[in-house]
Amino acid sequence: MAALQASFSCLSQSEYIQSQTFSNLHLLLLILIVIGGDLAKKKIYPTLWWLYRDGLLPEQTYFVGFARSDLTVDDIRTSSMPYLKVTDKEAERLSAFFSRNSYISGKYADESSFSKLNTHILSLPGGPEANRLFYLALPPTVYHDVTKNIKHCCMSTKGWNRVIVEKPFGHDLQSSEELSTHLSSLFTEEQIYRIDHYLGKEMVQNLMVLRFGNRIFGPIWNRDSLACVVLTFKEPFGTQGRGGYFDDFGIIRDVMQNHLLQMLCLVAMEKPASTSSDDVRDEKVKVLKCIAPVSISDVVLGQYVGDPEGEGDAKLGYLDDPTVPKGSTQATFTTAVLYVHNERWDGVPFILRCGKALNERKAEVRLQFTDVPGDIFGNQCRRNELVVRVQPNEAVYAKMMSKKPGVYFSPEETELDLTYKSRYKDVKLPDAYERLILDVFCGSQMHFVRSDELKEAWRIFTPLLHHIDREKPKPLPYKYGSRGPTEADELAKRVGFRYEGTYKWVNPHRL
Fold first, then answer.
1. Contact 234, 363 (CB under 8 A)
2. Where is the Glucose-6-phosphate dehydrogenase C-terminal domain (predicted)?
3. Contact between residue 391 and residue 201 where contact means Cβ atoms under 8 Å apart
């Protein structure tokens, strides 16, 4: 069994997925989900079902839920059913999946509840030898009690033990360090998987291959050729009744300090010695160490207001959400400019933009190149851009100038386009959680956040967050469904980004 574990822990994800014999192995993986809130029914159970359905888990896998609520497996099945995407042909397979599910109710701070959980685990077929994966889908307030009781009562003595920790990983540098210190007192770094689902996105993972698998990008991926890098996360909806949670954290903690900063690292890092987890994460940490804390002068904060001419929710502003505290100054939009002070990037602005209630749903990385020197076309040339669209409609495209077709001899903007739905018509892209949970099974931590990486990320943003919490600056209003405050565009322009407004990317699969 140990040999089988070792063999799968060193497989690449593609080899793992393509393995034809995996479903027939008797390697036992025991999944324990400490259930909390919507995440379990909307993401975790659907993900485990898809992996089980597709034969990517050993047939002898068991799933054990644990929480304070008095639930049954039927309750879990009913609540998660709308998110499972089950076809009529899969009904029997779904029944097999839930037949391997069980549920134990207990108190998070009660050691005897976890002893009862461990007794249940041991009673399952192969339970004493099983590997154990603990998925903590919990509010951070109960992490200490739960992890302590897992360590004392529920660890496997014969298989491996791994713990998935969901964000937020603290509230600032101090709280994050306290959580990391607590976790490291119970588990080794190799056992801890801090999950940021953005690292499981297809195009985020593709950044490494684009950069380090293509000679054409290497010589131009630096301050000599790039004017700026823009990382964007936009949502077309507001808080929609979740304002209480959001108001505690805000858009910077919710998106910028984790998702966007992770993408920045992948864009800016040097080539790692290999694709091993530590080699990749070592380079990401080096990037973060070169970034000074964000200055409030390089930040624009916004809060959406209702659009009187909008429809439905668009008429409502952030403060109209009954779950938002009255008079809240929490930002729902932020643009921040960071600089990586090293030889490759010195002077190149990294513009991070994220917000709610904007004009579209989009996440992308945009590298804007410098102007062509010695322009002979009478200022008709626009800047080249390389765009990696993370969502929706995954794509990589390069904006470039080309001769306008026909009798004209003038340049116009066009693109070299790799749109996944056109190029890979029959390929199903797995959900980010599917990739990441598979990585945990394989023992690969490449796409998970290491403790020193987390520390540096909080170091960059904590002074800004403390300033905002203390001074409570009033965010700039912007209309629901707009691009955000115009001051954010002015900031980007001031640091070097040029928006011409003359080009619109057309998704070719819609043509």
1. yes
2. 208-499
3. yes
What pTM was computed for the model?
Answer: 0.87
Q: Is the CB of residue 200 less than 8 Å from the CB of residue 320? A: no
Q: Is 197 a catalytic residue?
A: no
Per-residue 3-state assignment (H helix, E strand, C coil) for 333-356? EEEEEEEECCCCCCCCEEEEEEEC
Query: Which residues, in sequence order, are CB contacts of 114 under 8 Å at separation 6+?
Result: 106, 149, 150, 152, 153, 154
Identify which of 436, 390, 429, 428 has the alpha carbon closest to the alpha carbon of residue 44.
436
Could you give the CA distance from residue 342 to residue 290 in angstroms, rounded to a whole number? Answer: 6
Quote the tokens at residue 379: 């200022």
120 within 8 A of 153, measured Cβ to Cβ:
no
Q: Which stretches of 306-410 are assigned E, i.e. beta strand? A: 333-339, 349-355, 362-369, 385-391, 395-403
User: In residues, how long is the chain?
Assistant: 511
Answer yes or no: are the C-beta atoms of 412 and 381 closer than 8 Å: no
Dig out the tokens for 323 from the structure: 């779950």
pLDDT tens per residue across span 390-448? 888 888 888 887 788 887 788 877 778 878 777 777 777 777 788 888 888 888 888 88
Contact 463, 293 (CB under 8 A): yes
3-state helix, strand, coil in the chain (%, to 5): 45, 20, 35
Find the radius of gyration of the CA atoms of the chain: 24
Checking phi first, is residue 95 left (phi over 0); if not, alpha (psi -120 to 50) or beta? alpha
pLDDT digits over 343-398, tens only? 999 999 999 999 999 999 999 999 999 888 888 877 777 888 899 988 888 888 88
**Cα 146 to Cα 168: distance, rounded to the nearest angstrom:** 16
Distance CA 502, CA 399 (A): 12
Candidates 26, 120, 182, 259; catalytic one: 259
Q: Are 286 and 270 in contact (CB under 8 A)?
A: yes
